[in-house]
Amino acid sequence: MRNDAGRTEERLIDIVNGWIAREAPLLPILNEVQASFGYMPENAAAVIGRELNLSRAEVHGVISFYHDFRKEPAGRHVLKVCRAEACQSVGGREMAEHLKRLLGLDWHETAADGSVTLEPVYCLGLCACAPAAMLDGEMIGRIDEQVAAEIVREVRT
């Protein structure tokens, strides 16, 4: 029986093999790894690099550049709060701090119960409805204290 590390490596190789014949396969491979595991397994950079004839450092550089690639599984909900200037100009900084206090989390943290991960993002494109956030892929605009409380209730249930 193969151990978890062996099964992980086999799955990583399967993902690479599904993309290797295409031009510039690294980002699609990383996206599929993220979708498949929910995070980047510890050995992902080494295995992918070996299979694509890239250094581990090259693969790690791409993984670390994009904020959506995680080193650990995210919570059941992911709350991304806009930190860009348009949101900040209408109280976004204060609302972000309010959400952090309500959740008891800092940026890039996941609640101990696994309910939610809190992440900063730099523009959701919802500037006309600032301050804005995105919960599990759904945009939320004009966040005020009431909306913040509703978000927290939703992620904690």
TrEMBL record:
Signal peptide: none annotated. It comes from the Bacteria. CDD domains: TRX_Fd_NuoE_FDH_gamma. Keywords: 2Fe-2S, Iron, Iron-sulfur, Metal-binding. The keyword Zinc does not apply. GO terms for molecular function: 2 iron, 2 sulfur cluster binding; metal ion binding; oxidoreductase activity. The keyword Iron-sulfur applies. [2Fe-2S] cluster binds at residues 82, 87, 123, 127. Its cofactor is [2Fe-2S] cluster. Binds 1 [2Fe-2S] cluster. Pfam families: 2Fe-2S_thioredx. Gene3D superfamilies: Glutaredoxin, NADH-quinone oxidoreductase subunit E. Belongs to the complex I 24 kDa subunit family. NCBIfam families: PRK05988.1 (NF004638). This is Formate dehydrogenase subunit gamma. It comes from Aquibium carbonis.
